[in-house]
Each structure stands twice: as C-alpha cells, then as structure tokens.
C-alpha cells in the first residue's frame, strides 16, 4: 500500500527544455538581428554610392579645369595682329619747270601702298574702315583709305592696295630739277591706324587698336616708276 501511495504522490518531472540552437528563445531578437544586418548592408551601399558620386564630381571638376586652362592658353588667348607695309610705289612721276614766281619745279605722281595684316589668333579679326596718312618734309602729301573687312583665323590678307595722287603743291617746294634728273633719295613717312575686334566663339571679345608708323626711303630719278628702297615700321597694339 505504501509503495502504491508513494508512487501515486511522486512529483511530476518537468518536460525537456528546447535547445536554443534549434528553437530560438526569442523570435523578436532574431528579427532585430536580421533588421540590423539589412540596415548595415543598406548603409554600406549608400556610402559606396556617395563615394562614387563624389569621385565622379571631383573628376568632372578636374577635367573642366584642364579644359578651361587649355582654352585660356590657346583659343581664348588673343595675340596681336601683325600689320605690314609691304611696299610703296611711285608711278607716273611728271616734272614740269614752273615759274620763278611760284616754284621752280612742279611734281605730280601717283603713290601706291601695299599693306597686309596677319591674324595669328584662333578666331577671326574684324576691322573697321582705316586710314593711312603719308608725309614728306613735315607735310601731308596723301591720304589713303581702306574699307572694313575681316581676317580669318590664322590667315594673312592684303588689307590695303590703294592708289592716291600725291599733293603736288606740298611736294614741289622741296624738289628741284637736278634731283629728278640725276636721282635722289626721298624719305616719306606714313601713319596707319586700324581698330577691330577678335571674337572667340561669341563668348570672349577683345577690341584692338593697331597703330603703325613707317619710314620709307624712295629713290626717285629719271622720271620713272620707283619702288620703296627701304621700309622701317614700328607697330603698337593696344
């Protein structure tokens, strides 16, 4: 009887506790861990994307800086146009012995001036109507005009090839018959002024003012056509 009673009142044994390795004790912790790993991966992706964008932006800025530097040293660097007096020619020299009351010799001649302009820039150079004054013995003996025009990039064009009549009343007092017969050197000076503009792609524009002074030596004699013997010019660009 006692054994049966002891067996009847024997305490109940607890069931086996589930292994945490197979059945997590707390599902919320597992979900939190998964969410943490997802957020970490998302953060890494965003960081890589931000670094990639910053790298692209830095590369673009560097490339733009290099392009701007190259353009500043080439296309946008405006060089001074070169103005040249190629030659001056006297044609149709006509001498006439005048009267003592006026002047002993009267001289008529036609002067031809050949002027060219070189544009070393990568953009065209447009210039307005220009003027060239010729002087002899301090007197203006002729004025030549050239129309407006344009010089292409890296080109040289003949800007002026004009013919003008020398003002005889200003030349004759300084000429005598002996000089015309046996030959004589005459020093003529000229002054040319040209205003224009270099237009680079419509973005950068620069106005230029070219002034050129020339000293020209002409050997005149025997009433023939005479070309310039020597020409020395000095140009200033502002």
TrEMBL record:
TM regions (residue ranges): 49-76
Region ranges (Disordered): 1-28
Biased segments, Basic and acidic residues type: 1-11
Domain of life: Eukaryota
Key words, A-Z: Membrane, Transmembrane, Transmembrane helix
Domain Late embryogenesis abundant protein LEA-2 subgroup: residue ranges: 115-215
Keyword Membrane: yes
Name of the protein described by the UniProt record: Late embryogenesis abundant protein LEA-2 subgroup domain-containing protein
Organism of origin: Eleusine coracana subsp. coracana
Chain's gene name: gb04841
